[in-house]
Design brief:
7-stranded mixed sheet, mainly beta, 53% strand, 0% helix
Length: 118
């Protein structure tokens, strides 16, 4: 059974940085996409960044140049490096893994809170 656990959230001042981690337990398909999403109060969950197992990445317009998604070689952990944070980045951040292929799953973590405030 695949489980995702996020960590690294917290309170940070505007202009600061945080690195989120998502630890993946269980075995996932080799062909997959890992991603970070976020949801602010009263807003819908939105895409932040994705990383395909084949390499390509994708970022929301509002985080391009500030956020970087990466993973370890064993695909056991996915990271989100966040720089130059601002109040609009305040949200609960969720990790997601979607598997491609027959029987592939779509897994979510429970989220980690990021608050940007002075």
């Amino acid at each position: 059974q695949v489980q995702l656990v996020e960590s690294g959230g917290g309170l940070v001042q505007p202009g600061g940085s945080l690195t989120l981690s998502c630890t993946i337990s269980g075995t996932i398909f080799n062909y997959n996409v890992m991603g970070w999403y976020r949801q602010a109060p009263a807003n819908e969950r939105e895409l932040v960044a994705t990383l395909f197992s084949t390499g390509p990445t994708n970022y929301a317009d509002g985080v391009k140049g500030r956020f970087t998604i990466s993973r370890d070689g064993g695909m056991n952990t996915v990271y989100l490096q966040m720089n130059d944070l601002n109040a609009e980045d305040t949200a609960v951040y969720y990790c997601n893994v979607r598997e491609f292929g027959r029987g592939g799953g779509d897994y979510w973590g429970r989220g980690t809170q990021v608050t940007v405030s002075s």
